[in-house]
Amino acid sequence: MLAVYAGFSLDVYGQSGASYPEDQMHVILQEALDELEFCMGNTSTYWGARRAALGHPEPFPIKYVEIGNEDWFSSTYPYRWPYLYNGLKEAYPDIQYISSAYDENEYYNISIPAGEVWDTHHYEEPSYFIRNFDFYDNWQERTNNSGVEVSLGEYSAIQIDTPSGIVNYSFPADLHIFYPRLVSALAEGVYLLGMERNPDVCKFASFAPSLQDLNWYNWTPDMIAFDADPSHTVLSASYWQQWLFAHYRGHETLPVTNTEGDFNPLFWVATIDNEKNAVYLKVINTLNASVPLTVNMPQKYQSVNGTILTGADLNSYNYIYNQTEVIPKPINFTNAPVTYSPSSNGSFQWEVPRYSLNVLQFGL
């Protein structure tokens, strides 16, 4: 994925930020075309030859290009997006293009063509992510965006829950989440379960920021903290949530019929891994008490194992010299309150622990 400058600078906040005028947008388009030629052009092109001269004759296979970044802050994206999109699409029709705005600005909506992507960013309170678990259900139909996909390009739980639900970006110490906590991993995980349930809509997801140099930084929370001493590297609770989702990712989402109860406090999604012949059932419990779960598989399974991410309380987090406060651990079904019969009727009963993110792997 490549992002190209779209004629708007975020160094000045708000609608009055500096934008290229419409009659000068050809300058920005040419700059983007030159950048793509540098990345993708063969060595007979001007910029492709420059790339080769710098030691990389092979072109880069750019598949996705985002036009701008957080352009909903500007009043000018309604003319900048179509100008750049049309010019780039004509030159590189096989690339999938990403709009950095859709409906965030109260004064306009961006029309995104079918086959392209909307990049949305969310720095929110934990309850926002849980409340919007089903946001992507029927999103294309609900918003009349047939064929448009979504990229969650930046996200994190950035502030504890407040009555107003409004994030204070001055980062007051009593509200701000400086390091990803267990509550962050659970809430973000619930939201990403909603994305995993809708693979026809949801294309990408990326926690942000990814890296924090402990010697100097200007934004928190971050997924991975580090300095020159490797023993100081901290993999956060949010990192481990991402790690679990990435390591237990199926090829297809499976239908799940709930015969008792509904989502909240339990949230779940099931996928199948065709290569490993396994079903992954991700289950998150947001309640401060265990919740009974009964799973009836439509076929017999041969084995089951699980991994759990939890902590002493919702505010548990990893930090220097205490990097393992919130990490994935194997579930010990031998000593757990669990009943399962893999070789008979495919049933599985378990008390899902309080405040936990779990991945159950059923071997078929």
Automatic annotation (TrEMBL):
Pfam families: Alpha-L-AF_C, ASD1_dom
Key word Glycoprotein present: yes
Keyword Glycoprotein in record: yes
Segments forming a coiled coil: none
Catalytic activities: Hydrolysis of terminal non-reducing alpha-L-arabinofuranoside residues in alpha-L-arabinosides
InterPro entries referenced in this protein's UniProt entry, alphabetically: Alpha-L-AF_C, ASD1_cat, GH, Glyco_hydro_b, Glycosyl_Hydrolase_51
Listed GO MF terms: alpha-L-arabinofuranosidase activity
Domain called Alpha-L-arabinofuranosidase C-terminal: residue spans: 179-356
Catalytic activity, EC: 3.2.1.55
Pathway of action: Glycan metabolism; L-arabinan degradation
Superkingdom, taxonomy of origin: Eukaryota
Keywords, in A-Z order: Glycoprotein, Hydrolase, Signal
BP GO annotations: arabinan catabolic process; L-arabinose metabolic process
Family assignment from sequence similarity: Belongs to the glycosyl hydrolase 51 family.
Stored PANTHER family: ALPHA-L-ARABINOFURANOSIDASE 1
Protein's name according to its UniProt entry: non-reducing end alpha-L-arabinofuranosidase
Organism from which the protein derives: Hortaea werneckii (Black yeast)
